[in-house]
Design brief:
about 290 residues; two-stranded antiparallel ribbon; mainly alpha
């Protein structure tokens, strides 16, 4: 349960930030995570560059992947769906080719599992279950930074403006191309950090970490819509994303407990699809009845 919570919750923090102007960037998130897992595996596990340099290199690799998406969409003019679908397959294939389709599980990577351990909260640890260390080292800092960026900076206001009305933002003097590309870069950077967390959880740098099973795209989009992020952009809050993440994680784990084997995974897909449809319909009805709420 703790591993699933971390993998889902930590990854979705990037969804609200990267998808404020569009939900489509999520399509290549899983592939970026997979590729960054291999980058971290080589940097830390094989080349032995040290933990901090390896983390920096992995974050930069994620940012570069995001920049490629952003450049294709913002400057070349590719439709976001086409651009991110193309890079999804490109990044996914690159991760498999570079790794030789084998996970990287050296001694350093295996020892890095300690970064994903659960710890007691001082003073109340005996009365509550242990809390994953990633909650304090990644989730809370990322959520706070995302909140500050979106709600207390001019970049955040420009990002909301892009999603609300791209033409109006351009006429208001906003550099729409640069800001849109920056959104993709930040989404890629956080995806790179998520890859580090996933490597710690599995004690292995897997080339399919972000694309195996259900992948990360459908859960990320479902959580974003359920958390109040408008499909057309311009609306969304970090708090909504976190609450929606908890709901989806609990739903997925409840299904796995109720159904044994591969059957549970299939029911997860069904539940996510129905939840996505329901959340989209609810968002549309709410906007029609109460107007656009920021």
């Amino acid at each position: 349960m703790c591993v699933r919570v971390r993998a889902a919750v930590l990854t979705r923090c990037q969804s609200n930030l990267g998808q404020t102007s569009s939900l489509i960037p999520s399509r290549s998130v899983g592939a970026i995570v997979s590729l960054c897992c291999i980058v971290f595996g080589y940097s830390y596990g094989i080349w032995d560059l040290g933990l901090f340099p390896a983390m920096v290199i992995t974050a930069i690799a994620g940012a570069v992947c995001g920049a490629i998406n952003g450049f294709l969409v913002a400057y070349i003019g590719f439709p976001p769906l086409i651009a991110t679908l193309a890079t999804f397959y490109a990044f996914k294939s690159l991760a498999l080719v570079v790794s030789g389709q084998k996970p990287i599980s050296t001694v350093q990577i295996q020892d890095f599992f300690s970064a994903a351990q659960s710890v007691e909260i001082p003073g109340i640890g005996h009365s509550l279950p242990n809390v994953p260390l990633g909650i304090f080292t990644f989730l809370i800092p990322t959520a706070l930074l995302a909140w500050v960026l979106l709600n207390r900076t001019t970049f955040g206001r420009r990002l909301y403006a892009l999603g609300t009305n791209d033409v109006a933002a351009k006429w208001a003097g906003v550099d729409t191309r640069a800001n849109r590309m920056m959104a993709y870069v930040i989404a890629g950077l956080i995806s790179g950090l998520v890859a580090i967390v996933i490597v710690a959880q599995f004690a292995s740098a897997r080339p399919d970490a972000g694309v195996s099973g259900n992948g990360l795209a459908l859960p990320a989009i479902t959580i974003a819509v359920l958390g109040g992020v408008a499909i057309t952009g311009g609306i969304g809050r970090v708090s909504g994303i976190l609450l929606a993440t908890l709901l989806v994680v609990w739903l997925n784990d409840g299904i796995l407990l109720a159904f044994a084997g591969n059957e549970g995974t299939q029911f997860q897909l069904l539940a996510l699809g129905l939840l996505l449809i329901g959340a989209s319909l609810l968002n549309n009805l709410t906007r029609k009845k109460f107007g656009v709420l920021h």
